[in-house]
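In full, the data.
>
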Amino acid sequence: MNISPTVVVREVGLRDGLQSIPRTRLNTDQKLEWIREAYEAGQREIEVGSFVPARLLPQLADTEALVAYARTLPGLTTSVLVPNLKGADKALASGADLMVMPLSASHAHSLANLRKTPDEVVTEVGRIRAARDVAGAKTLIEGGVGTAFGCSIQGHVDEDEVLRLALALLDAGADRLSLADTVGYADPQQVKRLFEKVLRAVGDRLCCAHFHDTRGLGMANLYATYELGIRRFDACLAGIGGCPHAPGASGNVATEDVVYLFSSMGVKSGQDLALLLALRAKVAGWLDGELLGGSIALAGLPKTLSEARHMAVVA
């Protein structure tokens, strides 16, 4: 088990969060303000958008401008999602530090989301790796295996199929992997079983967990992976997010709740809860009328979370 006393909480609200809102609600200046204040709150990895066709997701059409701004912030890892080689070419040209290539372990969801079978996505990752190497770029490729715990279209997803596809992504040229509960079907026991299986096969190349809180188990599932040694987690400010092609896939785990979880245990995330909660309030105003998630913003910080511990976590 990785006993590192620190964790990385990657903010994915600007991509995963906003893509689930069926209309453009935030302008580019507001998104830049979100990035700046998230950075000031201590976030050092932010998924700022996705290089998908604007006609499909107009909410993310300004990703290039967001990458350009994020790259001016010292020490910030700027990540983007790419659905195919064309998107990857744009990511490479933008200078993004990391591109996430999503692969659905569910055949049905893969066709709905990317119009490709899972194995066709693996082939696409091979093309992306070749393009990255030819360009001499340092952009990392993360294979994001989604619907790893079940699918609201297909239903059951076999664990051996998840493992096969994870290995295939690495063989095709992905640098590392993440596993995602895209539709919020997982429970902690299932999470431990699958993560252990993949960790035995690929070691620390499995480096990130992505959970939705659709059925109230997102935080429990996240903690289950922490116990296995995972130290990098995706989360969305205010618990927004979801896949447009996965019926019922609401809300990611909330960034502020994840940071609070680790703060309460004395585990450093480098993020300031007070500043995160202030940013959440601002984003909530921008998204007035949208359903938000998360608990700590509603309940407030407990008196037992001492100022000394909070500052130690942020330091």
In short: Residues 8-314 form a domain with the TIM Barrel fold (CATH 3.20.20.70). The radius of gyration is 18 Å.
